[in-house]
Design a protein that fits this description.
GMP Synthetase, Chain A, domain 3, five-stranded parallel sheet, 20 strands, 33% helix, binds xanthosine-5'-monophosphate
Amino acid sequence: RVVILDFGSQYTQLIARRVREAGVFSEIYPCTIAPEELKALDPKAVILSGGPASVLDADSPGLERSLLDLGVPVLGICYGMQLLSHSLGGKVTRAKDREYGRADLELIAPSVLLDGLRSSHSHKVWMSHGDHVETAPEGFTVIARTPSVPIAAMACDEKRIYALQFHPEVAHTDDGEIILHNFLFKIANVKPGWTMASFVESTVADLREKIGDARVICGLSGGIDSTVVALLLHKAIGKQLTCIFVDNGLLRMNEREEVIGYLERHFDLNLVTVDAAERFLSLLAGVEDPEKKRKTIGYTFIEVFDEEAAKITDVKYLAQGTLYPDVIESVSFKGGPSAVIKSHHNVGGLPEKMNLSLVEPLRELFKDEVRKVAMELGLPDYIIWRHPFPGPGLAIRVIGEITTERLEILRQADRIVQQELLATDWYRKVWQGFAVLLPLKTVGVMGDDRTYEHVIALRIVDSIDAMTADWTRLPTEILARISNRIINEVKGVNRVVLDISSKPPSTIEWE
Ligand code: XMP
């Protein structure tokens, strides 16, 4: 395995991801890991991540010298480079300004690390740093520079210690993949062979060991994340797992049948389905304020889930489909290595209330990696490629008051959007595509009669991670088909409009 020591960089998970993509098993540990523990892991190579601190500050995280005695190759990135330099007798200088963004890298000495880069000068690399190394430690060769950083990469082949001021793990760095591959395969001589099948196997083994004979509960939402979590746990501990699915009456058409029905037919899960539609809808009656809707739904979900969970005795763990983007901070330096986590907003508050420990087997993965795990588990395409759906469900897409009739209008319109996207490969290309029911009526004409009916807005967006998004330039024929079908087939709608706003400043959902 390759060990990544986390010094708090926003890119640490990206390093791990790149190593996984190279077919090599990697694990992230806090930079404060005890030397004996690190040694016991028997790493084949160690990567030191970047981080927000400055080695020139007294309380900055340091480097255990014993790490360098392990005799394994070490690659320091950004802060990792400064730390190596600082600890080995080089000189680090504090910059007046942070350098952030693209820089031109020029190779100035041959090195295995930068072997095979497509050109020897003017490589675009991504910088994000304050300090930089001014004098390399003894025994190191400076192998690359940029106009503003005289030592952008350095190497000590004898000790197999390498360091980069820029970030090879980000997509903006040209040939970053070649650099990481050089480190892994030419310097550390690790053998690729790790796959998503290995991820499933090792995760299942870890879960089995961690959980022992305890009982676990898991909330199934119908989305891919919780479905994958449930199946990994099912593989690991079988019937010690109970899944709870709460039907809040705010689901899309056929949603319950499509996802939960599939699981029921194919897996022998302990699955509890709670029909709580009436309870949710009566609490939402007359509520128009978006935040009040969200709070009512969140609070009611916890109540319902808690009541069901209380019927199962001896539960010790709650399993959740937290993904890496949900984990907002990795290491907090002042407070030590403890991870600061944003609990999944749909079940936030549950673990404390129920005194449960969390199990989060997808914590280190990105969404597209979860999809690969789902493929490995043999899930069908319609579950793997399902668009994200918010916890509060259709409640935040029925703008204004939520009634059974208005929910039904939205469900029918939304079904048409889904069908028309699925009929082409656009369903997979877009991040999310859905209908929104607006709180107004407009005048139309149907046959010879005046109509005064509802308006549906279409929200179809491209995104990588939902943090930013742009409206999809969908072919007009598809838009025309969606619009025609909604107006003709959904009773009570006489107008369809298209949302052409990006996020930011808008958001993907309307509420
Ligand atoms: P916004 O509207 O903030 O949405 O641009 C970003 C992404 O998050 C989804 N979303 C939610 N997901 N619970 C969830 O599980 C929620 O309360 C929630 N609100 C928004 C939204 O669908 C989009 O993918």
